[in-house]
Amino acid sequence: MRLPWRLMMRRSRLRLLLTATCLAATAGPALAQAPLAQVPLALRGTGDGDATFPLTPSPVTPPSNGTGLSPTFIAPPPNPGSPVPGRRSYGRPAGRSARPPVYAPIRPPVRPSLIVPALGPEVQPPVVGLPEPVPPPPKLRRRLAEDDAYAPLGLRVGTINLFPVLGQSLGYDTNPNRSSFDRKGSALSQTEVELGIASDWSNHQLTGQLRGAYNAYPQNADANRPEGAGRLGLRLDVTRDTQVNIEGRYAIDTQRPDSPDFSATVRERPIIASEGASLGVTQRFGRVLASLTGTVDRFDYENATLANGTVFDQSDRNLTQLGVKGRVGYELKPGFVPFVEVLADTRDYDRPVDSAGFRRSSDGIGGRLGTTFELTRLVTGEIAAGAIRRSYDDPRLRDLTSPILDAALTWAITPLTTIKGTATALVDETTVAESPGVRTVRGTVEVAHALRRNLTLTTGLTYSTSDYDRVAISQESFGALVRADYKLNRWLGIRASYNFERYRTEGAASACDCTLSKSGYTAHVFLLGMRFTP
């Protein structure tokens, strides 16, 4: 009777084992997520080999996490011969004594590590045997341009900026007429008007600097006179390599009463006015620059009033000058362009014959060599030197050959100190008999230093010589300037200045004394005033 019972028990165990294995395979994922309290399973033993295993678990509450997973149970070990907790062995049954139920604890799923594994191999494997690359030094921050609290704001008209200046100064002049015989001093009232022009265009450019002044002498009204100079330039960028340059200019000056061009003493200082314009085209061929410019200038002389009240006619000195010049340069490097220049002009007087009976109209031809330069943006300028030869209509006036020079220099020594210099050599006209012209050389040097942001000190020197060709007349002048500008704000400033002039003439028969072989004068000018820059 015992043999069939044992066989039946083994078949029941195998059937139970196969059923549990299938259920574990289908419910394994749900078991991994079910809480421990929701998956109880009891294994009950009733004696020696007498054991019952429920094929289905007791109902439990579904998980509360809303996953919809079914409850499951822990299956017995897949190997029937493996030990089970609470029993000695399946191979040899134990005694028939009853045993308490055994519960198998279920461990919750192990939490995965938070350490993220490497996403992949290194893109570039390390190079063995080479030093580590040195990181570049950090780039320096560009200094922001400081706003000058005393710089004028100007007026904006469309896309053009205007910088007007109004000045009024009072002072004293020891020699208003700049005369060697009439040295009567007088108080001085000087009124100045200036206008700076600068365009704000992406292409083309408009620039200009205009100035005018009037000097009034209450104690010597005959010395009252205007003065001024200015230029206005327009650059048209036709193409990337083609430019058209248009310029207009003017100058106002007065003649000294004892000038050699006067044959008698004059009472007032006659005005000399000049106006001019130029039109030029510049074409670039790689590094080669070629330009052609035409010029026209007009010179007018005011009639003078002699000491006896009669009028001294100077209309024979009025003339028109037409000229043309061509230049070819080669750009060795940016800002440094050596060039060669050829020029020609003609001077045509309104009256063919002057008061002395000479025909002074002439033609000139010459050439110059020069260069423009820009050294580290601190030294900029242009210099050109050469010679010119003038031929006159009157055969009694022999041809005149003279050196010509035109130079300008700006040197920013420090952010606070700037030096400017100019030099000019040319041939001026004259009415002195037998003399075809005057060789004139002028030079100026000016140094400006900012002691403070609103306090600038300026000093300057001027020197000029004039040599009358074929006539033993020479003139020499020297001047010095000291000026201080103190800005109260953007719109208002104070200017104080001192100007010294010394002039000497040798070999000339002056207007006051025809037997005088030497003459000259000195002058001291003191001024203090206000400048308004709206």
Question: Would you summarize the structure shown here?
Answer:
This protein is mainly β. Helix content is 6%, strand content 49%.
Broad shape:
elongated
What distance lies between the first and last C-alpha atoms, to the nearest angstrom? 131 Å
Helix content: under 10%
Beta-strand proportion? over 45%
Order of helices and strands: HEEEEEEEEEEEEEEEEEEEEEEEE
Main structural class? mainly beta
Largest sheet at a glance? 18 strands, antiparallel, barrel
Radius of gyration: 53 Å
Helix tally? 1
Give the uncertain stretches in residue-range form. Answer: 30-75, 84-98, 509-516
Mean pLDDT: 81
Number of strands: 24
Descriptive account of the structure:
- Helix content is 6%, strand content 49%.
- It has an 18-stranded antiparallel β-barrel.
- By secondary structure, the chain is mainly beta.
- The termini are far apart.
